[in-house]
Amino acid sequence: MKTTILIAAIFFSGMTFAQEKKQDSVKTKSIEGVTMTKQVFKKQSDRFVYDVAASPVAKGNTTFDLLKQTPLLSTTDDKTLKIAGKNNALIYINGRKTNMDAESLTQFLKNTPAENIQKIEVITVPGSEYQVESSDGIINIVLKKKMSDGTSGNMRMSNSQNKYNASNASFSVNYRKDKLGINANLSGGENINPQTYILRNRSGNVQNESVGDIDDPNKNLGGYLNVDYQLTEKSNLALSWNSWANKSYNSTINLLNIITRYDNNDNLISTDYTRTKNKENARNYNNSVNLNYELKLDSLGSKFNVNAAYLNYKRFQYSDNNTMISDVQGSTSGFSRTGKKIIQDIPQIINNFSGTVDYIQKFKNDFTFSAGGNFNKTKTDNDTKNYTYDYIYNNAGQLQMIDLTTDPNHFIYDENIYGAYLTLEKKFSDKFSGKIGARYEITNSLGTSDNAKQPEYQRIKRNYNNFLPYLSFNYAINDKNNISYSFSSRMRRPSFWELNPVKNIITQDNYTQNNPFVKASSTYNQELTYMYKNSYFLILNHTYEKDQITQVPLQRSYIDPETNQKRVQLAYIRTNFGDKQEMSAMLGVQKSLFKQYLTLNFNAGVQHNINNGTLNTDPTTGQVFDTYINDRKSTSLVITSNNTLRLDKKKTWFLGVNFFYVDQQQIELGILKDLMSLDLSIKKNWNDWTFAVNVNDVLRTNLVEIEDFQSSGNYNYIKNDMYRRSITVSLTYNFGNQKVKKVRDIESASDAIKNRTR
Does pLDDT of 333 surpass 70? Predict the structure, then answer.
C-alpha cells in the first residue's frame, strides 16, 4: 500500500453516493447483452440477485468490469466499489469474505475473468449472521462450478494506455472428478499509477501551494485455489487459499512548493520556493487460508457449519523524503541552506486467527432458526523508524547532512473479538416474510509501545461490549409489486493502519497523522425498497453515524525558527469527528428493450448529507491548530446510465455506452465538486474467443476537486488528476466443458478482518 500518497484515500473516504471505485471503495457501468428469458435481476428476502451466467455480458470482461455494471453498484475512482447509499462494499466470494487489503483486492478483481461468475448478490443491509461494520453492504460473487467430470477454464490478456502503459494476464481452471472439485486462478501484471496534484491552503496571511506529480510503479502476482471434497452425501470439506503480492519500487513524488506571505491589506510581501522529491520502495504480501466443514442435517436445508481461518499480511515500506530550497523554476542549486531529508521505515505485520460456528435449523412451517458465534484474534506489529537530517553545503561545496534526529515508535496492537448471534426468520405466507435477529460483540484491545515519548502511548487499553439488533420484512403485494424494509445497527472499528500512530510526510508542511486513540463508531441503518416487475425499483435509505472515523484537515501558521519567517502547516488528522447523517432516494430500472437489442441499467436519485464535527487539536501530540468546523448540509444529484446495444442477430457484437454524474456535495474535507465520466466499449464474441476495446473517461471529466472555506478565513483546496482516461484492449479464450452449476456457499471465519488491513 502506497502510504506516502494516502492523501488520495482522503478524497474518497467520505463519498457515499451511488457510485464510487479507494475503496476505493467502495465502484458504474452496465450489464451487456442480457438475455431476458428468465429473471435476470430480482429481489429476494434480504438481497438483490443478478444472474449473469446465461448471458453474454460476462464474456471478455473482468470481474471488476462486471461489478461496475451491476445494478446498484458503481465507482468513480476505478478502485473502490460502492453500493447505492452505503459507505463501503465488502467483497465475498462464494459466501466467504476476501481477506486481501483493499489495493490487492482491486487488482485481483481486475485480473479475474468474469466468465467464472454464476451470479452476483447485492446485500444492502446484511443480517445479524454477517460480521460487517458501519453501513457496509455485501457483494457476494458466486463462481461457477462444473456439473460433470472434466476440465474447463479461460485465459485473458489485456493492455491499457493512459499516461503510461499497463499489461495484465490471467489463467483460470475448473476441474471436477467424482466427489472432488477444484478451481484455481493465477493472475498478474505491471502498471504505473500516475497522479497530478494541486494542493493549496491558507491560514491568516500565509498561503502554501504544492504542485506536481506522483508516479507509482506496481508489479502484481496472485491468485486463489479452492478445493471442495464431498465426504458423504451429507458432509463436505473445503479448503480455500488466497494469495496476492505487490511490489512498488521507485515510487516518486515531485512537488514544487510555493509559500506566499501577505500584509493585512492582502499585499504580497514575499515568496519562497522549495522542491520536494520523495522516493519510496514498498512491497506487501497477503495470504489467507480457510478450512470449512459443512454437515447437512435434513432435506429441508438445515446444516451445521464450522470455519477456521488464518490471515498473514506483511507490508514493508521505505521512503526517502527530500525538501530543498529552490528558485521559481524549481532549481535547488546555489543555496547555502538547502532543506531537510526525512527517511521513514514503516513496516506492518498482521496475523489473524479466527473461527466461526453456525447452526441453521429449518422447519416445515417455513420457519428458520439460526445461531452461531465467532472469534477473532489479531496482532499487528508496527516497528516504525523516522530519521530527520538538515542539508547544508560544507566549505568544500559538498552537500552534507547534519543534526540527525530520530523518532522511533514500535507499536504493537492486540485485539480479541468475541461475537454471538441469533436470527429468527419466518415465511408467514406466500406474500409476507420477516426476519429478526441480534449480535452481541465483545471487543478487548491493547496497544503498547516500548519507546513512546508520551506516557499515554505506552499502554492504550480499550474494552467495549455492543448489542446490535436487526429487523427486516418483505411483502409481495402481488406478482408485480414487492416492498421490503430493513433496520440494522453496527459498529465501525478503526483499521489497523489507522491505529498505528505514524506520521506520513508528504512535504515539510504537509503530512497525514494516524491515531491510536481512535475509538469505534456506531452506525444505524434503515432502508425501504419498492420493486415493480423485477425491473423497476425505488430505494430510500437513512444512515446515522455517531463518532464517525475520518481524516480532518487542520492547519496553523507558525514561525520557522531557522528563517524567522511565517509558514503554514497542514495536517490530515485521523480521529473521531462528530456525527453524520446520510439520506438518499434512488430510482432505478434494469430492463431489456426492443426485442433484447437494448439493455438499460439506469439509476437516478438524490443524496442529502448532514455533517456535524469540530476539531482543533491533534489527539496524538496535543498540538493546537486553528479550529476546523464542518456543520454543513448538502443535497446532490446522482445519475448512472449503463446501456448495452446488441449490434447483430447472432449476439456476437455489443456496444456499451456508460455514463455517471455525481453533483457536488459536502464531505469531511469540504465541497467535493461534481464528477462525471463517459465510458465506451465494443466487444466481439467469436466461438471461444472474445475481443474487446474499452475507452474510459472519454471526455476527461473524472477529476477530483475539493474546496473548503472556514469562517476563520482559512482555506483549503485540492485538485487530483488520476489520468482515468484510458483505452484497454483485451483478448479472452475459453476452453473445455463449460457446463456448470452453483458452488456451495461458504462464509469465511476471518470475515471481520478484510477491510481493516487497508
Answer: no
